[in-house]
Amino acid sequence: MKNKPESNHIHAPWVRPAAISRRTVLRGLGASLSLPLLEAMTCCGAEQVHSANRMVVLMSDLGMLPQYWFPKGMGFDYEDSRYTKVVSSFRKRMTIVTGSALPGVDGQHDADICYLTGTPRPQSPSFRNGESLDVFAAGHIGNETRYSLINTCNNGGRSMTFNRSGSKVPPLNDPVALYNKLFVENAAQAKEQIAKLKTKKSILDKVLEPSRALQRKVSATDRERLDQYFTAVRDAEQELVRAIEWSTVPKPKTDVTAPDRDAYKGDTLLISSAFQKLISLAIQTDQTRIATMLVSGAFGTTFRHDGKEWQVHALSHHAGDPEKIEALAHYEESVMSILNALLHSLDEVQENGQPLLDRTTVLFGSHLLNGHSHSQTNLPTILAGGGFRHKGLIQFEGDGRYPLTNLYLSMLHKLGIETDRFSTSTGTMRGLEA
Amino acid sequence: MIKRIPITAYLILLPITVLGDDVDSGKGVEAFFTRYCSRCHDAKKHEGEFQLDTLSRDLTDMLVAQRWGEVLFRINSGEMPPKDEPQPSPAELGQVAEWISAQIDEGRAARMAQRGPVSHYRLSRDEYANVVYDLVAVHFDARMPGALNEDPRWHGFDRIGSILSLSPSHVTRYLSAAETVLNQAFPTQPPKFSKQRQTAEAPTRWLILPGWHQGNINVRHPGLYRIRVQLSALPSFKGRLPRLSIWNNSLKRAEAGRDVIASEEKPTVIEIETFLPQGGFRLTNEAPGKLDDGHTLGSTPKSVTHLADIHIVPKGYKLFTDEETPRPIFPMLLVDWLEYEGPLVTEADQQKREGLFPSSADNLAEARTCLNRFMARAWRRPPTDVEVGRYMKVLESELAAGGNSRSAYLSAMTGVMASKNFYYIVEGSPSQQQQHLNDWELASRLSFFLWSSMPDEELFEAAGKGQLHKPDILRSQLHRMLVDRKTNRFVDTFPVQWLQLHRVGMFPPDPELYPDYDAWLEQSMIRETTGVFGEVFSKNLSIREFLSSDWTVMNSRLAMHYGIDLPAKSGFHRVALAPDDHRGGVLTHASVLSLTSDGTRHRPVHRGVWVSEAIFGRTPPPPPPNVEPLEPTPSDKPKATIRDQLEAHATHATCASCHQKIDPLGFAFDNYDAIGRWRTHERVAGGLGDDPPVVAHGTFPDGRAYENPEEFKQLLAGDLDRFAEAFVDQLATFALRRVMTIDDRAQIKAIAEASKHDGYRLRTVIEQLVMSELFRKR
Description:
Chain A is an alpha/beta fold. Chain A has helices at 35-43, 66-69, 133-141, 175-183, 190-208, 211-217, 220-246, 261-264, 268-284, 312-316, 322-347, 404-414; strands spanning 31-32, 54-60, 94-98, 100-101, 150-153, 253-254, 290-295, 302-305, 308-311, 350-351, 354-355, 360-365, 381-385, 392-395, 402-403. A seven-stranded mixed beta sheet of chain A has the order 5-7-2-12-13-3-14, with helices on both faces. Chain A has a two-stranded antiparallel sheet with strand order 1-6. In chain A, strand 10 and strand 11 (354-355) form a beta hairpin. Mean pLDDT of chain A is 81; it is low at 1-49. In chain B, helix 20 (604-614) crosses helix 22 (655-667). The interface between A and B is large, with 76 and 72 residues.
């Protein structure tokens, strides 16, 4: 729960672009830091050089065909499956987890909203979602960058990102929009833009003012509603403050060209791949430290393969048809390739003599194991990078319900966030001691 | 964050039936718990840190309800009772599960209804757009990418207060939307009206085949435009009509369109009035779907004088049949000229804006008067002096910061629209507990119910005089509102939400199995259902027509889909149905039959659940997770229908108890495939032999039997009182923006009963609801 507002004064302690503690030296990128940032680095050389922690989540919302997902064995000696083979060059730097699930999370397709929140029973009438892992992490380590969090999804309606009051944070759906956010300056309008932002902020100030007295008087139920309102308005205000502060800091330059919207034709894989490339750049240029991408095949999205256009969700109900299974396997293999590209992009960049991947915790997974049966236990999960002491393959015995939220807690700890639980966690993940 | 509830419930069940007729009262279930569960889950053993006997039965408490949900989940998932314990009969488990579900349902209602002195109901984005239009006459496309966030739905309803949450992105988007809207309503310079004309230069005419574009419409100022086109429009030899649409070049979508039919010799002039955003537009022929009927489009001249000229020039393409009188293979448009004018600002539009903007904001007194007026309308109640003062401060501080007077005043207006008093419907006051709505709140409830928008001047006036709550005034306002054109919004919204039509096309039909399916068919399906609702509404017919009727509303595309002979005609019409059309009533609308399918196959269970929710107002308990899906018929076995598979599939102890209630409501429609076409045999992939015949008979749990979908519909229609109650429940959910509770049930019943005297005519039902205590209660 958010603190109650005490006064009109807006605290925005994380907004300090004037003293950006960015100490990253980037090499071999399609993007380079702009001058002011580099200057900041030299002028403040006396400061402790430190590396920041990051997190990227890649989620595929129809699960993975079990016959191609499960590797065999234990530890680092496991035998690759068709899918894990795609990322086999990272064998030593990742942990595959089998036998875990989100405790109490049912709801089949609709449980995508719980993948990062872990909140049980999305279908129950009294359901209220909780805060998602990415928002929680961004609240702690997202403060020093232009964007505290970047979340994307190829598919309009869906999202796995939820704020403190459990409201959906809509993801970016268009790679061009992300590209513009990252690299396109609107210099001509900058001054006018700042004035506009300031006006907006002062409007929100006024809007917020009168409701405070009200908040003290109302009942618990309404307070919850008002609390949501205050959280939303205050956060919006802080976003504006942040935008105003950052509006004077030039964005990094890049020789990567803007994505071509027309080339995707709604293809889930092409859009997701474009998002992955941009998210890699966003992390590399330190414009955000938390990024999540939902690769959504749920309802109506398509991809092209073998000269045909396929509907992903329809394929997931393949009913045993070998041709459909093969097309689906191609789709899922392509998602694994996106993960592989992500890992490579983070690995080929050094920060303070260390691959960026070692500072970036990457989670790959799904809220379903098998889209055909909608099974929600034994979820496909890979943890990579982040400086963990990786374990190869961890298999939890039992009914496939070891709390995945325990892994989330382990991730938060690795990111340097002190908390003794997250959502339904019962502890950190067994077998993955840091 | 939700607290984790540590329950590891192990219900030990003995093989004795203790459940009798006492289930409804809960006594039987209590006996069941006492005798079977307490051995482990009592104070002594407290197995799994869970004690059932002391678990509260007051499910209005959120945490208690969650715990019961957990118990239900364990039973449903088969985890309880453990496999090494004696298994109870499916009937026993089913009864317990159902009892818990019902308790949760009722508890839910109470929980959602727990209201403090003030309630906040956020506007849905469609309502936001309507309000903005009624407030300052600006058409705002709230669904455009990046405009406003999509609203979550509760069983189809997108206006339920407790689930319409607010996130920072809402707040920023409301701010941007307000700026856009206000700048358009009160521009620095009024936009120049322009009128343009383009011709194909007679005697040549523009040929527009499906997917082609001709002409150019350039819109510099967004607003209302009138487009007139003279054209001939020829259906294909299969009867598909061409569709003239206004194509948005940058968004790549049609903004408005119309089916047209006119012979080559006798062109017609059609007029389309539509709101257009800034940008470029072209005319297109939008007839979609499988058009070629076996032929391919090749290079064809873009303009022609006579179609006969191109009959005889086959250049590797073919546009006409080989008949003696050749007919077009594709639906065609031949355009002579195009005119467009706009932006049109009507007097009514101007009137809405009058008195809201000061002639000079430097005159603070005038500015204050205007702002006061704007706030009263935007917030749907008079603002207090303190409130007006607060927004005057925005103006003053902008002026002090060197802003010009126009932009300073606009900032104040933006603030008014960024306030929660604008985007929330606020009911109640923090200073006093009020049982009933005040007149301003009643005006809003009424107008958002019937117009999906704010009250108009007359309704405000009635509220201002403090008279609206008086029954005769309320009734006369209702009658006035019912004949207002704005009720179109009710007709377009309520049936979509009640019948969950937002799910149509959510699982797009497999193009290989259903090559004839197209976007216009999908649209037409939805319009059949809203069209039927509109007809019942405007003619004030009985709600019985929804269950069973001998007419429907359709266009030629849908008639083609249904295999019904309908003379080629543009638009939607009321059409009489014959028994062998196998249509009539929403249950056999292609929309409903599609939304309860998965794009590949029909889904009897989904159809049963849908009937249960939409017609009976009951939601069956959710299925347990990890149910193995139906597998395809093996190639060495005879072909089996989905019904055969389902009936063989009920192996789980708890499946049968629920499914025997759900499935008979779905099997009745096995005669309709996944896109709602009539059939007598079910197409089955794989397996041996011929496709099996459809078996569409069944028996309700209470023993009533039906032989076919028609008899099924008659059974439902025969039980009209029950449907009426469920319908009132849905209508009240829509009107009151909250889920109905057990406490509302008596009043819902009373409203239904009061509507019975004239056979449940729709307007009577609406009037009984509006005049009820329920409607005026907070």
